[in-house]
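Worked example 2:
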Amino acid sequence: MKETAEVMKNGFFKTGDIAKKRQNGCIKIVDRLKDLIIVSGFNVYPNEVEEVLASHPQVLEAAVVGEADERTGEKVCAFITVEGQLDEDELIAYCKEQLTGYKVPKKLVVLSELPKSTVGKILRRELRQK
């Protein structure tokens, strides 16, 4: 009973998902609470940054995690795989055009592949250790 009470709030099961209610009344899950990055008190949803990164023509995959930062609490760190050569300054400029300043990655790491589970889900916990 105690465990059930801890995961319930106002009759709802707390899954750890972050959702937004759309104008049509539907609920859209936008991220996970434990993946949320807080930069100087502002919420950064990794999925939003990942979508912008992945929309760049040379970026194949992207994963975003938070990393401790003395000045802002956390900073946005992006891990990407690319096709061909990538100008990192160009990618950051691309992000600045589409994201608010505090959401732009402060650290960019190009990998040959992102760590994934057996079902193909990106393992953010492994990226946090890099």
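The chain has one domain: 35-128. The first helix runs from residue 2 to 6.
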